[in-house]
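Example record

One chain of 304 residues, shown exactly as stored in the release files.
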Amino acid sequence: MSAAAPPHPSPHPSPHPSSAELAAKLVDLLDVEQLDTDLYRGKRGDDGFGRVFGGQVIAQALQAAQRSTDEDKQAHSLHAYFMRPGAEEHPIIYRVVRDFDGNSFATRRVIATQKGVPILSLTCSLQRYEEGLAHQDAMPDVPAPEELKSDLEIRLETVDQMPERFRANFTRPRMIESRPINPRSWFKPEKQEPRQANWFRVVAPVGDDPALHRAILAYASDMSLLGTATLAHGVNWMTHKLQTASLDHAVWLHEPFRADEWLLYVCDSPWTGHARGFNRGKIFARDGRLVASCAQEGLIRLRG
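Predicted structure tokens for this chain:
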């Protein structure tokens, strides 16, 4: 596997990790360890929230599925169901079931467990490359990422409004940089069309392994999708007693891409109801190619 080389330690370390260190941390997080045939262990994250980020579990499960398949076949779709929240203090074990191996396609099931209890079930399909009929939706006309503030810059502008106990996590440097097209207010959310878009990329180069880039996209696909459903209602976790969690998540991988180059994530939510919200996403490369599509239904519960 080609991956970013670990950075050399600085004689005068800064209070925050460098971009290269953050990118290397993401590569390490998604590099699942093989324990036995079709049995893998995922590293623990350290976001500090206690609960494992759903995109991490999806990405590690995808890596386990990809490791169990010959390199001629590439993942083109995954469908995942979240059953229980994962805990940051424990590693995650991934067991792969080889349901099908054909000439063109292979299918894998992956069960993620902590302390012997399932937390996620993922099905992944992989295909050997071939040509075929082709068309795609057009990429929307949006400002270039260089014209936009990063999500971190926007957070730092409002950090004085954040309760002290949340500030460290609210302003910590991220492994994936995001630049929203129309930033929403964290503290005075207003009802708006349930649509949003943002550019994102890993903060530094991460090597040339296509499987790693697919895993990183799967990781990032869970970063802004669920929140789209809350836009129509003018609520968020900062201003309301809002309980949210991913219930299921699907990603279709269409074209080659690099996750350390700018990708545009365009999301919309056609429906919410019954404490659930449904969201869709399209991910475009900067050259206009539609490289992935996503869908997710999540728990959205207002508590009194």
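Notes: DSSP finds five helices and twelve strands in the chain.
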